[in-house]
Each structure stands twice: as structure tokens, then as C-alpha cells.
Amino acid sequence: MTEDDRLAAILADHAGREGALLPILHDVQAAYGCVPADCYQPIADALRLSRAEVAGVVSFYHDFRDAPAGKHVVKLCRAEACQSMGGTEMIARLERALGMKVGETKGDVTLEAVYCLGLCACAPAAMVGDQLVGRATPERIEALVAEVSA
Amino acid sequence: MKIWVPCDAAAVACGADEVAAALASAAGLRGEEVEIVRNGTRGMIWLEPLVEIERDGVRHGFGPMEPEDVPALFEGGDHPKALGPIEEIPFFAKQTRLTFARCGRTDPLSLADYEADEGWQGLKRALELGGAQTIEEVTTSGLRGRGGAGFPTGIKWKTVAGAEAPQKYIVCNADEGDSGSFADRMLMEGDPYCLIEGMAIAGLAVGATKGFIYVRSEYPHAIRTLNAAIKAARAAGIIGDSLMGQGPAFDLEVRVGAGAYICGEETSLLNSLEGKRGMVRAKPPLPALEGAFGKPTVVNNVLSLAAVPWILVHGGAAYAEFGLGRSRGTIPIQIAGNVKHGGLFETGFGMSLGTLVNEIGGGTASGRPFKAVQVGGPLGAYHGPDDFDLPVCYEAFADQGGLVGHAGFVVHDDSADMLALARYAMEFCAIESCGKCTPCRIGAVRGIETLDRVAAGDPAAIELLHELCEVMEKGSLCAMGGFTPYPVRSAIRLFPQEFSLSQEAAE
Ligand SMILES: Cc1cc2nc3c(=O)[nH]c(=O)nc-3n(C[C@H](O)[C@H](O)[C@H](O)COP(=O)(O)O)c2cc1C
Ligand code: SF4
Ligand code: FES
Known about the structure:
The structure holds two protein chains of two kinds. Helices cover 47% and strands 13% of the residues of chain A. In chain A, β2 and β3 (109-114) form a beta hairpin. By secondary structure, chain A is of the alpha+beta class. Chain B is of the alpha/beta class. Chain B has four domains: 2-93, Glutaredoxin (3-Layer(aba) Sandwich), CATH 3.40.30; 111-320, 3-Layer(aba) Sandwich (Rossmann fold); 327-413, Ubiquitin-like (UB roll) (Roll); 418-506, de novo design (two linked rop proteins) (Up-down Bundle), CATH 1.20.1440.230. Chain B has 22 helices and 16 strands. Chain B has helices at 9-13, 16-30, 90-93, 111-116, 121-129, 131-141, 153-162, 183-190, 192-206, 220-235, 266-273, 302-314, 316-320, 353-360, 394-399, 418-432, 438-441, 443-455, 461-475, 479-483, 485-494, 501-506; strands at residues 2-4, 35-37, 51-55, 58-62, 82-85, 169-174, 210-215, 251-256, 297-301, 323-324, 327-328, 330-337, 343-348, 370-375, 382-383, 408-413. A five-stranded mixed β-sheet of chain B has the order 2-1-3-4-5, covered by helices on one side. Chain B has a five-stranded mixed β-sheet with strand order 13-12-16-14-15. Chain B is globular, with a radius of gyration of 23 Å. At the A-B interface, α2, α4 and α5 of A face α1, β12, β16 and α16 of B. The complex binds flavin mononucleotide, iron/sulfur cluster and FE2/S2 (inorganic) cluster. Residues 262, 280, 433-437, 440-441, 476-478, 480-481 of chain B line the site of iron/sulfur cluster. Chain B: It holds the Pfam family NADH_4Fe-4S.
């Protein structure tokens, strides 16, 4: 399937759906790893919106990326319950150990901040790829990163 | 042998899948017949992964389990992680579980389990009563919105029922963005049919045939469970073209958020659902009259909707017997952060804050002295020991310049840096502001700068910060900008020395 076919298939999947833009953007990101700017116009055409409207929606939401992340995304919770259990220090130690900062991509790994994963009673919390981590330590996360990127 | 291992995201985050795998292989090696059920969580998160084994008709708990602890389960004798009968553990025994009655006991996706445990009885009763009387029952219960604002649910439903329109909607707010909150997630993962039943009752009551559940993208497990539950309920003929084959049509769809805290605010959520930027709308028009796609819409939190089946089965008056003052019924409290016994504790409104933190929560996890508890998420105030007499109810917390909100309680020990937490409150507001109004959009950024000046010892900065908080509180369109001053000012009030020490040092 060419790139255009993939997008056309996604748009066809959602044809006629009320409020289809977010579901479309999620599917586009799942297919391409990000929402490429050259998708804006075809999406706009399908939903009878302006390109600017689509661009505005993409930029509003933290989830949508304009470039693909590393193959392994590590999300680290920065919110209060995790802070109360040493989350801030945990993030700092992990940053030092991996030699990168939250918000950066190095090799296959992207470190990202997240604001609560609903794991506040087993804080600090993180997510490595699809895997949830409660009572997280930098060592455990490093081991998981090593495991998935091996 | 029947063994339960929770599938809840918190249990999984603590290793429940590994424990389940170890159980299966240990049983295989020994040639033992075991049935492993993946239940929801009981909510005693500090004990997760919490395995249960039935003995003489009573379920016994073991936890927190690690794969190494598994073989001993088959060896008889005392197990080092044995907790005794699960429902006799004080944290559990002291609760009044109405909304969470099934959660943790059943296989979340088993329709048979659900039916055997009062499932669909509320919907049946609503079908008998009809819309108007169903709303009457909800009004009698005194149920108020559990999403934070505490608006009476019966009144909201009545407004939507009274609106004339060809199409109406039920929208479930499952955006649960507050730190310290996970009750919505726990219910969606542990008893999804309960939410489906609550939404179906709401649809029937107000004349809506379509419902949306707007779930934050940070909850992939809940999204999967809900989608599976909706499919199963539809296949069983409970929802779809006709409710239980005798009522009107009602169907459901899950919509996934995209990482924006503000989309928990109902009008922002509606914009997001419609495929727009999640900007807050000015009210009026009320969503009840002009909500999703401009149609009359009930927007309710997960817990408000999930309380409804119980209310229909047992009656609004029975629900209203629990509680305190104008806060009726039960509140699923989430106690989290630096606390020994973190988890979900459902109880009638009225328990004192001190009892909750010290007795139920067991004090801090670190064993260090308690410092403060933030109540109601990132927009909620910090409370110190002086507030330990406060009963958990909407009025008492509002009177103290705080809020109960979605009932997340985050405990901090004495190592907490209150200036850093105040700065974080402003930073969070700056990151998550929808940008519609100036006091919030610009004020939050000024707030960060001003707190940095406080930290650097600028003596004029505190006064400036107070003025800024005043502007944000008075001039913001919604509670994002309007309540961000709560954690900031309460932190200063409780721990003034932490906001002036640096100043003295500089002098
Ligand atoms: C900034 C902000 C965030 C909110 N987040 C949520 C949320 O995550 N979940 C929720 O149910 N309500 C949230 N609310 C409250 C909703 O606006 C609304 O009051 C609620 O969904 C109504 O349902 P209820 O009456 O059942 O509580 C939030 C409000 C504000 C101002
Ligand atoms: S207070 Fe903040 S979040 Fe609320 S409407 Fe104004 S800018 Fe948007
Ligand atoms: S605050 Fe980190 S998971 Fe909730």
C-alpha cells in the first residue's frame, strides 16, 4: 500500500462519523508514527474543514507528534503523587544514567513527561512502550529499556 | 482450585501478569487443576499484586505477591504473604461499597458474573418506572456529580429530559486527569458493565439514544476493556437497537482523548468530541441544552453514572441514608502518594481527614512525619494537621478554601518542598491552559517566574504572587485558571517560612 492509500483507507474508515477528526488523527499517528503535515490537506478535504483547522487541532493536543518518536517511548509521570514518592529524583537519576533529558530522543529511545497514569497509589509510575511500571526505580526502567531495545 | 489475579492496570504495573504466568506454570508442573480468573482490583493497591484463593467458600488474600512467592501457595502451611480472608482486612471491611460493590470480586468482562451480582437489575427497574420516575429516584438519592463540581445529577437529567430535540446524547466524562485519582479507571477496568448500565439508564431517563465515553489516552487498559464490554453487551442484546429487547434504542461508543488535561472540563471535552481544539466554551448555553454537536447532552463523570444502577435497585432513599449534610451517599476516596495504605476507599461522606490519612492510610509510606495532603487534584488545596477534623464533604472543604473534587488525596511527608510544589501548580496550569483567557494563559507563566523570584530571595515577589493569584481567581473563565491559586496560596499559608527563608538568607 502506498502512503496515500493508507491515508485514504483511514479516511474511508471514518466516513460519515460524527466528530471524526480525533479518531482519524489517532489512526494516522498509529500508521505513520506521527501526523505528517502533508496529511492535513487530504484530511481537511475529507471532513470539509480548512487546512488551518486541522493544523490547529493537531497542535492543540500533546499526543500528536509532527515527527516520529524513537522506537521506544518512555513516559515518566511528573505529577504530584509521583513527586511525593521521589519521582522528581527518580527522573533526574534516570536522565543521568541514560545521558539524556526528558523531551529528548537518543538512538531508539524517547523520554517523555506524562501527567498522571492513574497509578498514584503505587507511585512513582512510568510506562515503557506498552508496559506500565509502578513503584518505579531508575534501575528497573533502565533494565526494561535495555530489554526492549536489545 | 480457583485463583484470582487482578488485571487492573495498577496490579499489572506492580507485576500481576508475571504472577499469573508463574501460577499457571507452577500449576502445570504439579499437574494441579487451577482456574485463574483475572478480576478487577479490590483497591488495596499497596497489596498488589493481590492474589486470592477460595477455601471453604471464603476468598483468602496473598500479597503483595512476587513470582517467587507462587510455589509456596501449592505447598500448604503458612504462606509468608497470607492476609487471611480478604473481606476481613480492615481497609476493606470498613468501607461501604455501593458503586464498587462488584469491583474486585468478579471477572470484569463476564456477563454471567455481572448478572449473578445484581447486574442489569437497575436498568430493568428503570424500564418499569419509565423516564420521569427514574429521574425522580436519582433526585431523591441526592447524588451530586462526582467529577468535581458536585452539581445535582437529578436536576441535570431533568433539564435534558425537558429539552425538545430530535437527538440527545449521554457523554461520560472519563478524562480523569487529576493526580491522585484513579477511581474512574478502576471502575472501567474492574466493572465496565456497571458504567454501561448507568449510561443506559441515563439514556432511557432523558430520551437519548447515543452515548459516548470520552476516555483519556493515558488509559489504554480501560479503553480495551470498555470496547470489549460494549461489544459483549451489544451482542447480548442489552444495548443496541433496543434496551434489553424491550426499551428504546441506546448505543455506545468510546472516544479517546489526546493528552490534554483541560479536556476534562465538560465544554472543552465536548469540543474535543466534535473534533475541535479543546477550548473551554462560555456558559450559557448549558451543555444540557446545547451540548455535543449542539444537541441536549448529559455530561456526567464515570462515578456519577456508575452510582445509578445501585440507586435504581435499592432506591434513592436508601442511597441518601449515607452521607453528611448536603453531601449524600458514598464517595469513592482515592488515597495516594506517600501513604502506607494507598488505594480506593469507598465510604459515606463525613469521615474526618485525620482518620483518613492516619487510620485508613496508615500514615506516610516513608515512615517520616506527615506534612500535608493535597485534596482534589492539581487545583485542590494543601491541608495540614490543623484540618484533620474536617469531614470529607463538599461544603466543609469549600468553607476552608479547598475542594473535594474527584476525591483524590495525595499525601506528602516532611521532605516535601512546598515552594517546588507551588511552582509545579503554576507550571501545570501553563502547560495545560486552553489559552482562551488571559489571566490563566499569561498568569500561569508569570506565576512560575514570580515563584522563581521568591526562591531567589526577592522580597517583593510574594506580594506580587498574591496579587497574581487574585487576578487568576477572579478573572478566569474556568477552574483551571481560577483554582490554580488554591494549592499555591494554601502552601504559602501553611508553610510561610518556606517562601521567605531564601529571602532571609539573601538579606
Ligand atoms: C480544569 C477542569 C478539569 C476537569 N476534569 C474533569 C475530569 O477529568 N473528569 C470529570 O468527570 N470532570 C472533570 N471536570 C468537571 C467537569 O467540567 C464537569 O463538571 C463534570 O464532568 C460533570 O459531571 P458530574 O456532574 O457527573 O460531575 C473538570 C473541570 C475543570 C474545570
Ligand atoms: S481559565 Fe484557562 S483553561 Fe479555563 S478557559 Fe481560561 S484559559 Fe482556558
Ligand atoms: S501522579 Fe503519577 S501516576 Fe498519578
